[in-house]
Design a protein that fits this description.
This protein is an alpha/beta fold and 342 residues long. The chain has 10 helices and 10 strands.
Length: 342
């Protein structure tokens, strides 16, 4: 069997410094050139309204600054599901991620979000307190009839190379791989539970072949497998639990009444408020997390037993937009896009 050394945790300041320096040297010339292109775009186009989904490219940032300073109204439709955090370091990381163009625009008038927990974060990073609107992510999927007693768990985390991770929010490569294997070992110990790990095999840096070979070991008892082909729409119809870190996919699961497990105890970052005790017959939650890996088996066993039915609207209240919230945004967009209704 092939073996690899998992990347170590990033606790060496010199390593972090070297990574940042290399990234700056690689990207700075392109950033300056791209920014000039944004200024030229703003000189050529003078819109009355600017609509964006993010501000990551320097050219877009420069164009947005110049256009809004000339009086253009600006609307941003957030393409992630960023949330404010209760922990100090986690919230600093969330603000860094949010300021990286995801809920931040000069002179922003209206911010349309995929989940209600983005609003508190937006108010922390945007000085002008934009109006918050709601948008539905994906669709509402029908629930497929079960063919057996199997409890289907889908893991859909994001693998990032070291230079692409967000401190205190996303995981380093080593953390991601260790967490995946720890969760898989626990899942294999729970009866009638099947774990599908959803991966993109061509993801840069991911040791896909090694991981695939590792999960064939007897300890995973054939109940854990990698899935690269099944459409997510089909999985949303069948899954009982979604596992991940931070992703718009998590929000889509909640919107469909599917409970979440936040596989992030190594980071202490919870993308949603999470219950850290196993559910009971009298109390279950929409989101779960554990503080230590040895708590995984009892947590997964209890979730399997108590979540045979989808979450109700009452259980996801405050984490998912309500129909009235979506309707208000639809009305706002209808007025904004139809001059006759302004």
């Amino acid at each position: 069997m092939t073996t690899i050394d998992l990347p170590s945790l990033v606790d060496d300041d010199m390593l972090v410094d070297q990574t940042i320096r290399e990234a700056i040297a690689r990207y700075l010339p392109h950033i300056c050139k791209d920014s000039q292109a944004g200024s030229e775009l703003a000189r050529q186009a003078q819109p009355s309204c600017l609509v964006l989904d993010h501000l990551i490219q320097p050219s877009v940032i420069r164009a947005a600054i110049d256009m809004t300073s000339s009086g253009a109204r600006s609307i941003m439709i957030n393409h992630g599901s960023d949330t404010a955090q209760t922990g100090r370091l986690a919230n600093l990381g969330a603000q860094l991620w949010a300021r990286h163009g995801r809920v931040n625009m000069p002179g922003l008038d209206t911010l349309i979000c995929k989940g209600p927990l983005t609003a508190p974060l937006a108010n922390e990073v945007i000085d002008n307190s934009p109006v918050i609107g709601a948008i539905s992510i994906g669709q509402r999927y029908p629930v497929a009839q079960k063919q057996n007693d199997e409890f289907l768990v889908v893991m859909a985390g994001n693998y990032r190379e070291l230079h692409g991770h967000i401190p205190y929010v996303t995981e380093t490569p080593g953390e991601y791989l260790r967490g995946l294997l720890e969760f898989a070992r626990a899942a294999a110990q729970v009866n009638n539970l099947r774990l599908l790990i959803k991966l993109k095999p061509k993801k840069a840096g991911l040791p896909f072949g090694w991981l695939q070979e590792t999960l064939r070991a007897d300890e995973f008892s054939g109940s854990v497998e990698i899935d690269t082909t099944t459409p997510f729409a089909e999985l949303f119809e069948r899954m009982d639990l979604l596992v991940g870190n931070n992703s718009a996919t998590l929000q889509e699961a909640l919107d469909n009444g599917i409970p979440l497990f936040l596989n992030t105890w190594r980071r202490r970052y919870c993308h949603f408020p999470a219950q850290t005790t196993p559910p009971t017959s009298d109390q279950r939650a929409p989101v779960y997390a554990v503080r230590h890996a040895d708590e995984l088996v009892p947590m997964l066993t209890a979730i399997r037993d108590r979540h045979q039915e989808r979450l109700t609207g009452g259980e996801t209240k405050g984490l998912s937009w309500q129909p009235d919230d979506i309707e208000r945004t639809n009305e706002f967009l209808a007025r904004a896009l139809d001059p006759a209704r302004r």
